[in-house]
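Retro notes (design track)

What went well: tokenization of the new backbones is finally stable.
What didn't: we kept losing track of which sequence belonged to which structure.
Fix going forward: every design gets posted as structure first, then sequence, in one message. First example under the new rule, 478 residues:
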């Protein structure tokens, strides 16, 4: 890669980091996002290298949607990102000051820093790059994830009541371990932290340890390498409650599984509670040894389903209340009916709306919602927006014909409507750049250029912004 290219990527990366301001907590940015190294920016994809797999999992699972959004805001709609684990690149490019002191030989999962000794309560272990617990330390409990903040609905009722039962009577064989499974962003981590908080509130002397399975693996590997297995075991065998998250990442890691199995048995057999989460039920964990599967399923297994409409509404209301923002009921319903798969996305949509409204000084209403969320929302249920629909509405507005728009004419009275139509096709449909190009008899780079131009105009020119909003509303049929 040439020096110019490197500089260009770095300046784009800087833009992305700037856009995180106010959206992702600065501690999280400092610790997890900014250490990523931009390696390429081609075909609208920003590739970032990280030193350890934990960082990739953490950013993707916790901030995937928000960060994707930020990348689009910084670089333009259509841009995506990908995180690769490549310690060589990540280390080589690190600022000297950010480099760890003695860069030992690294494996994919290796971390170089020493951890702090266990303390009582939630044990603040140091993640990579720090020597003390940071507020968003992934190995300590998130203060926001309490039972109070958890909205119960049909989809999570069973998990919620079991979590409560465990919090009230930890260690009972019938619910030890408590195994919670379900899709991403549905509240598994939240529930598990809620139990931890409740235990600590009732018994401040209890030692509760939360750890993501990937971090357990890293710590295990590091302990072997540094010949500190005694300390590792001492730590894990002496806790009162183990919250172990996303154990699907143990798949295929035989040594870690064996070690974890021992920890599990030690705790379980002496009546100490274990809560585990996974994206699938124990029986479906193909790469896990059978004896582990049967042990994991030997307590209570509960699942969390995607939230139904009423729960989504309640979650949005609760979140608005927490953020102390008034969101009209029709806006809540509007979002809840369109973002229906995952709670993290639901929260992401609301955060983005609030931020957009305050930045643009617009009221929080449906119009702002459409403008702020654009293709974040999955369109009207059962009604797919097509390029033909967009073309028809744009043509009607500008009083031009479909032939004009698809012709080679370059005069502004035709070129501008064409660019607007291309912009909207990208914003409102899932169609790719080349397909949009084909529809208008252009190649994909013309579409990308048109999109960029209109995007810039919506920022600098009030008339274009208003036009895009009004056309969007017509197309969506709101
Ligand atoms: P998972 O671990 O299943 O991927 P998380 O526990 O990380 O999901 O939840 C994603 C986000 O959604 C978190 O910010 C969490 O607080 C929120 N969330 C999930 N379920 C609920 C709920 N029932 N009520 C309120 N917030 C929720
Ligand atoms: Mg989780």
């Amino acid at each position: 890669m040439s020096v110019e290219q490197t500089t260009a990527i770095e300046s784009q990366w800087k833009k992305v980091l700037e856009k995180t301001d106010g959206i992702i907590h600065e501690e999280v940015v400092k610790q997890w996002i900014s250490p990523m190294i931009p390696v390429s920016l081609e075909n609208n994809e920003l590739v970032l290298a990280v030193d350890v797999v934990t960082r990739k999992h953490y950013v993707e699972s916790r901030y995937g949607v928000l960060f994707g959004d930020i990348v689009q805001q910084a670089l333009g709609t259509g841009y995506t990102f990908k995180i690769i684990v490549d310690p060589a690149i990540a280390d080589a490019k690190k600022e000297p000051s950010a480099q760890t002191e003695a860069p030992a030989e690294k494996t994919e999962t290796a971390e170089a820093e020493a951890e702090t000794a266990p303390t009582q309560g939630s044990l603040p272990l140091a993640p990579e790059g720090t020597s003390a617990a940071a507020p968003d330390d992934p190995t300590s409990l998130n203060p926001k994830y309490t039972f109070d903040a958890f909205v119960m609905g049909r989809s999570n009722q069973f998990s919620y009541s079991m979590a409560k039962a465990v919090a009230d009577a930890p260690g009972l064989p019938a619910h030890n371990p408590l195994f919670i499974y379900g899709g991403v962003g549905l509240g598994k981590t939240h529930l598990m932290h809620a139990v931890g908080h409740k235990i600590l509130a009732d018994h401040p002397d209890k030692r509760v340890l939360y750890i993501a399975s990937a971090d357990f693996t890293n710590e295990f590997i590091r302990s072997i390498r540094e010949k500190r297995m005694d300390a590792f075991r001492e730590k894990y065998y002496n806790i009162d409650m183990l919250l172990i998250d996303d154990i699907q990442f143990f798949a295929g890691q035989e040594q870690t599984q064996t070690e974890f199995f021992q920890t599990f048995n030690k705790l379980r057999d002496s009546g100490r509670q274990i809560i585990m989460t996974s994206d699938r039920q124990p029986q479906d964990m193909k790469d896990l040894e059978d004896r582990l599967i049967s042990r994991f399923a030997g307590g209570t297994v509960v699942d969390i389903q995607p939230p139904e409409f009423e729960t989504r509404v309640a979650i949005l209301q609760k979140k608005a209340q927490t953020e102390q923002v008034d969101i009209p009921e029709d806006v809540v319903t509007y979002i809840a009916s369109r973002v229906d798969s995952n709670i993290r996305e639901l929260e992401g949509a609301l955060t983005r709306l609030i931020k957009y409204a305050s930045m643009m000084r617009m009221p929080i209403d449906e119009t702002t919602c459409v403008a702020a969320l654009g293709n974040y929302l999955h369109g009207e249920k059962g009604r797919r927006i097509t390029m033909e629909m967009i073309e028809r509405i744009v043509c009607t507005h500008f009083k031009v014909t479909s032939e004009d728009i698809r012709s080679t004419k370059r005069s502004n009275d035709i070129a501008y409507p064409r660019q607007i139509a291309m912009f909207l096709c990208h914003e409102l449909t899932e169609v790719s750049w080349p397909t949009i190009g084909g529809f208008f008899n252009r190649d994909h780079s013309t579409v990308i250029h048109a999109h960029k131009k209109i995007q810039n105009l919506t920022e600098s020119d009030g008339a274009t912004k208003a036009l895009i909003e009004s056309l969007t509303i017509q197309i969506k049929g709101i």
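Added context from the reviewer: The radius of gyration is 25 Å.
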